[in-house]
Design goal:
Oligomer: single chain
Largest sheet: 2 strands, antiparallel
Radius of gyration: 27 Å
Number of helices: 13
Distance between the termini: 62 Å
Structural class: mainly alpha
Number of strands: 2
Shape: flat
Strand order of the largest sheet: 1-2
């Protein structure tokens, strides 16, 4: 009578595969552990704590906390300064993001050519990005100085009236917006320039042979082909616009008359000047919701217009 014998190696193949998968998973966890710990300690835990503290009366330095429910949010609803800070933040975003990206696109297209001195121009336009934010703010405080500032000196030479840039409610926020555009347009330019390097040159040559103008090439060839990068840049720009703090802190301290007070600076005031951690957490939670809503809106509008090469 013949007996059927199984190869012992056949039973070990699934086990070896499971062990290999477990080993890969363990390796991935070990490699990601430092980043995960960092994110948990400095990102996820502060967000969770802020969400909780928004419903409590918490004073800076005090160990006692009291549950107040929606009281912090109700107080903000009737706080005129909160709404002004929100309007200033939205105005900053609405002007800064499209202007910076539009300028960056123009610079990237202009520098995406083999011309003499292109490398120097790229470095010059990117240099503001490398300047520390506090140092850049101090430089622009000097440039905007009403008595001896170079900007007012130039306006005087041109026969224009001098302005109290950072001391005028009408011009303080536009002054910060202009400085922010100068600071970050080069960063967006570098990203877009890298995307332009991947656009096939024969498309432009075919368009020129068909008599297509440069502007139509930009609209119908360049923009669709770099739309994933443009989408990424818009997301980064929106996120950055709602994180503005350093320029306001260095240049105006939220003045004059809160004309440049933005949500991040108002959070700082409530937390460290008024020592009201509960209200500061409520503002931070509202800011988080606003940013998430804007990112969702961008994804629903621009995200559907993104064209990926090869699809």
């Amino acid at each position: 009578m013949n007996t059927l014998t199984l190869d012992p190696s056949m039973d070990t193949v699934p086990d070896l595969r499971r062990r290999a998968r477990r080993r890969e998973l363990l390796t991935a966890v070990v490699m990601l552990a430092p980043s995960l710990v960092f994110l948990a300690a400095f990102t996820y835990w502060p967000i969770a704590r802020s969400l909780i503290y928004g419903f409590f009366d918490v004073q800076l330095g005090s160990t006692e906390i009291f549950y107040v429910g929606w009281e912090n949010y109700q107080r903000l609803w009737h706080d005129a300064l909160f709404w002004q800070s929100l309007r200033n933040t939205v105005a900053y975003m609405v002007v800064t993001v499209p202007t910076s990206i539009g300028l960056a696109l123009v610079l990237a297209v202009a520098l995406d050519r083999k011309l003499r001195g292109t490398s120097l121009y790229r470095s010059v336009f990117f240099y503001p990005v490398m300047v520390p934010s506090v140092a850049a703010g101090m430089v622009w405080v000097f440039l905007y100085a009403p008595g001896y500032g170079p900007i007012n000196g130039l306006m005087e030479l041109l026969g224009l009236p001098k302005l109290e840039w950072l001391y005028d409610r009408q011009w303080a926020l536009p002054a910060i917006i202009f400085m922010s555009i100068w600071k970050y347009a080069g960063y967006f330019m570098l990203i877009l320039l890298a995307a332009l390097q991947l656009v096939p040159r024969d498309l432009y040559e075919a368009a020129r042979l068909d008599g297509v103008s440069g502007f139509r090439q930009l609209v119908h060839i360049t923009v669709p082909l770099i739309s994933p990068t443009l989408y990424f840049v818009v997301i980064i720009g929106v996120l950055h616009s709602y994180q503005i703090f350093d320029y306001v802190f260095v240049m105006t301290q939220g003045g004059p008359a809160d004309a440049t007070n933005v949500l991040t600076f108002y959070i700082y005031q409530n937390a460290f000047q008024f020592q009201d951690i509960g209200t500061a957490s409520a503002i931070a939670n509202i800011l988080l919701l606003v940013v998430m809503g804007l990112i969702g809106l961008v994804a629903l509008t621009l995200g559907r217009r993104v064209h990926y090469m090869g699809r």
